[in-house]
Design goal:
The chain has about 450 residues and is an alpha/beta fold. It contains 14 helices and 21 strands. It folds into 3 domains: about 5-110 and about 225-285, Adenylosuccinate Synthetase, Chain A, domain 1; about 115-220, Adenylosuccinate Synthetase, subunit A, domain 2, CATH 1.10.300; about 290-450, Adenylosuccinate Synthetase, subunit A, domain 3 (Adenylosuccinate Synthetase, Chain A, domain 3). It has helices at about 20-30, 85-100, 120-130, 140-150, 155-160, 165-180, 205-220, 225-235, 270-275, 310-320, 335-345, 385-390, 405-410, 415-430, and strands at about 5-10, 35-40, 50-55, 55-60, 75, 80-85, 105-110, 115, 190-195, 195-200, 220-225, 240-245, 285-290, 295, 330-335, 350-355, 365-375, 375-380, 390-400, 435-440, 445-450. A hairpin with a 2-residue loop joins strand 17 (about 365-375) and strand 18. Helix 3 packs parallel to helix 6. The protein starts with a strand and ends in a 7-residue tail after the last strand. The protein binds inosinic acid (IMP). Inosinic acid (IMP) binds near residues 48, 143, 259 and 298.
């Protein structure tokens, strides 16, 4: 399939928190300086999050997209997303506080996007109490909102725009009864909110009135986006940046069950979300973002390449590997080639981006899981926790590189030899070329590898 020039897509290539937001931001702002840019997201909702700076203010984006501070950018929240109106308004208010009153980018919410409400968050929490054992989620109500679609009773953004009171009331009653069936009172359930402390879902009357007020504030942003998208996609001078939520290792099909999110976290989700306008195989650069020298994971999954706690602690402190909202310490693992090569293949990646190349230590080899064995036989990754419990990691060690020299490098040739060799190893094992690496938190700290990297 011929590729459409000026199109880039980024997804998490492991278990999330790879630093993809920073890469997307960089692409959106650099390309915006050259011409119009569309930014599109097709999955997830406020379970995602990354921080962007506007002047001296830092703003946490969850549902709004990178480019929100760029006047010429057009951002589209796609059909495949699950959007919480209250959180969305709070994010918009944060953006306005930072700019002194306006939202610089154009924001379009696809009228077909799914509405996620406090009722979903309440029910998710009720289910969590009902389950034995921990089924951790971000608490944002993501799976119940997607389940509404599968059970054929979603509330779509257009139901908010036209305010379908009957539908919203029926929705409340359904979730009231579901919670009641499991012994809890939906009205009294306290749920998370970006606006501040947890708040009660409230009575039917309070709930419907709250959603109605939010709907009227959001209405100007809700519309059909099919024509806009089709026209822009066929104008090849317009740059498109697709920003995925979460990561392939959290995908509903590819994660180690039950630690998964309910959406399609691969580029394939773009096809359905755009109603066939954008075939992801046409996107010129489809990059998976990974941490170069280790991986992190949040959840109950147990992965084969666990690291000893001393080294994990060293990395956790050095790279601040704590949950952005929960502050939970993340599990730290050795880079797992079988898992990432599986994700690369099922995710249809054309490129890699390796972040955190600076997380190496003098005289400490970079230890990488290069394969699994089961009863002495070589085996690969499969998205099944019970299977993963039976495999043993096989390791290879790489010489560390000098971090000062790494950070000083502006080109591939200037990188320390050991870093170049390590990158070559990743490219060979994973079968896709490197697009760029990052060597520190600052935007200037990175090296582009391809002519398709930032121009
Ligand atoms: P949900 O997306 O809230 O349903 O959460 C399901 C699982 O995905 C949980 O283990 C979450 O911790 C994980 N998860 C969801 N979003 C992210 C993310 O952006 N980074 C890392 N983990 C995530």
């Amino acid at each position: 399939m011929p590729s459409r020039p000026n199109s880039f897509a980024f997804c998490g290539g492991a278990y999330g928190d790879e630093g993809k937001g920073r890469i997307v931001d960089q692409y959106v702002s650099d390309y915006s300086a050259k011409g119009p840019v569309f930014v599109y997201r097709d999955n997830g909702g406020s379970n995602a999050g990354h921080t962007v700076s506007f002047g001296k203010t830092k703003v946490a984006l969850h549902q709004l997209l990178s480019g929100i501070f760029i006047e010429s950018a057009t951002t589209i929240l796609g059909k495949g997303m699950v959007l919480h109106p209250g959180d969305l308004l709070e994010e918009m208010a944060e953006v306005k506080r930072a700019t002194g009153g306006k939202i610089p980018a154009k924001v379009f919410i696809d009228e077909m996007a799914v509405v996620l409400l406090d009722t979903h968050r309440a029910y998710e929490s009720v289910l969590q109490d009902w389950h034995t054992g921990n089924r951790g989620t971000t608490g944002r109500g993501i799976s119940p909102a997607y389940v509404d679609v599968l059970l054929r009773h979603p509330i779509r953004m257009r139901d908010l725009a036209s305010f379908d009171t009957e539908k919203i009331t029926k929705h409340y009653r359904l979730y009231r009864d579901l919670c009641k069936g499991l012994g809890q009172n939906v009205a009294e359930k306290e749920v998370t909110s970006l606006a501040g402390p947890k708040q009660k879902v409230g009575s039917e009357k309070e709930f419907v009135a709250r959603v109605k007020a939010q709907a009227s504030e959001l209405k100007p942003f809700i519309s059909g986006v099919f024509d806009l998208l089709s026209k822009a996609w066929s104008d090849r001078k317009i740059t498109f940046v697709f920003e995925k939520g979460q990561a392939i290792g959290l995908d509903v099909r590819w994660a180690a069950y039950p630690d998964f999110t309910a959406s399609d976290t691969t580029f394939n989700g773009i096809l359905g979300s755009t109603e066939g306008v954008v075939n992801p195989h046409e996107i010129e650069i489809r990059a998976g973002v990974v941490k170069a020298t280790y991986m992190s994971s949040v959840g109950i999954r147990r992965l084969p390449s666990e690291m000893d706690e001393k080294h994990a602690h060293q990395i956790r402190e050095h790279a601040d590997e704590y949950g952005a909202t929960t502050k939970r310490p993340r599990d730290i693992l050795h880079f797992d080639v079988p898992a990432v090569s599986f994700f690369t293949r099922v995710g249809g990646l054309t490129h890699l981006v390796a972040t955190h190349m600076d997380i190496v230590y003098p005289n400490q080899p970079v230890k990488v899981c290069v394969g699994y064995t089961q009863n002495g036989k070589k085996v690969g990754y499969r998205p099944d926790q019970l299977y993963l419990n039976t495999v043993k990691a096989v390791y290879r060690e790489f010489a560390p590189w000098d971090v000062k020299a790494l950070k000083a490098a502006k080109t591939k040739a200037e990188l320390p030899k050991e870093a170049r060799e390590y990158i070559k190893f990743l490219e060979t094992e994973l079968g896709v070329p490197m697009l760029m690496i990052t060597t520190g938190a600052k935007r200037s700290e990175g090296v582009r590898f391809s002519q398709n990297a930032l121009r």
